[in-house]
């Protein structure tokens, strides 16, 4: 066992919020919060209403660091089998909680020599699907179909596409597919029917965004050659620090949860920064925080990968949390944090021994969500507003729209109309109020050039308005920040950006195409936002993504 159960102390600079945080921790100590958490006491979150059984059935993440220990050898043995079979790539076909932890591991750890390179495909844009296909040799690629419910439309559509491509070859396709899902799901049945190489079943009492330390995260990590036993060991350190008998004021998870909840009442834009080794970790946190706490008209909005700005550009509705690995020596980030503190902004520094402490942080932040939800009066384990966009997306796809055109309910503008674009953007931004935020929703292929252009637009919005900004690629964000957009406070201005994909790609075994699917998802979410009284502007870039984004930046 590693002797790393201690690490450098975290630093909390909370300003005027410190007394409220201390009072919250004292209340949790007197009420036995940790004991009740580990006892799965649903009364911590039901607030006199809600289904206690649903809450209890989502607390399995507490046991994962220990529960997955006996599964480790089998998962790693499978990874050795895949390596020996000559696979050079492993591709995650997943969405949200099924893809974000693998994305973190991919961005943090390099694959060991001889193990497959991990790719994550969580876009239904035809160009993204085509780009992924060009990167791989299908015969030497293992496809990981990942879905908790086994019914998620995006991974199943991607599965059908690559199954069709492989089925055209002479050898059976099933040996190049595995599934990660819950017991008894349609995906588990599909995998048995088509003779997948392997099916990994995840504990059903673990919600998607809490599943990073379950097979959803551990199987892809092992396929890269990552020592998943070491990750789980760090998670066990976190579980021990948040044990039932621990003092609340010394519990890392409760201390963080109290700070987020109490500061979040007035500083609800949680701006997450990270040193270089941990650059991928905030994207996993984005879903965890937004989907856990953004509901019932309240919550905390995570701000991830926002371009750094001058300290005076930030409003007083922010709090900052930073992840620092000592060996990174990121002096620019340290100087930025010092300037924020000097300006009176609340700053939390979380110091990690090394990148393996991601396992510790995953458990700590899950505990913090449970605690913060209790303090804020929200049930942190459901996502009641995600389904609305799915329902409206299905309706949009069923409409007869030859080119996929359709008004989401807000204002729609074509980017080629520069004058109209300028007027529309000006009118949309004029609706902004102090402490609002701007959400940039890109139903585009997430390539590097497009991402850079969208980040330039974020920078322009922040400079012009001083408001916090977020960026999400659709449909991925629908399974994460999408819950906060519709269930959190009505503080958002939403800029939907989409194109007309050419060429389109058919989804085999269905009557749909990927272009129709992503357009339906954009329309469905736009209509859901308008139905909730949100301020929405949709910009269609048509066939000129680069030029349209530049015109949009200039308009802002």
Layout of helices and strands, plus pairs?
Layout: E1 11-13, H1 18-31, H2 33-38, H3 43-46, H4 52-56, H5 64-67, H6 72-84, E2 89-93, H7 100-108, E3 117-121, H8 126-135, E4 141-146, H9 153-167, E5 177-181, H10 186-193, E6 198-201, H11 215-223, H12 228-241, H13 252-264, E7 269-274, H14 281-293, E8 301-304, E9 318-325, H15 331-342, E10 347-352, H16 358-376, H17 386-398, E11 411-414, H18 418-429, E12 437-443, H19 448-465, E13 468-473, H20 481-487, E14 492-498, H21 514-531, E15 535-540, H22 545-555
Parallel strand pairs: 2-3, 2-4, 4-5, 5-6, 7-8, 7-9, 9-10, 11-15, 12-13, 12-14, 14-15
Antiparallel strand pairs: 1-10
Could you please describe the fold and organization of this structure?
44% of the residues lie in helices and 15% in strands. By secondary structure, the protein is an alpha/beta fold. The protein folds into 3 domains: 11-32 and 247-376, Rossmann fold, CATH 3.40.50; 68-226, Rossmann fold, CATH 3.40.50.10490; 386-555, 3-Layer(aba) Sandwich (Rossmann fold), CATH 3.40.50.10490. It has a 5-stranded mixed sheet with strand order 1-10-9-7-8, with helices on both faces. Strands 3-2-4-5-6 form a 5-stranded parallel sheet, sandwiched between helices. Strands 11-15-14-12-13 form a 5-stranded parallel sheet, with helices on both faces. The model has no long low-confidence stretch (mean pLDDT 93).
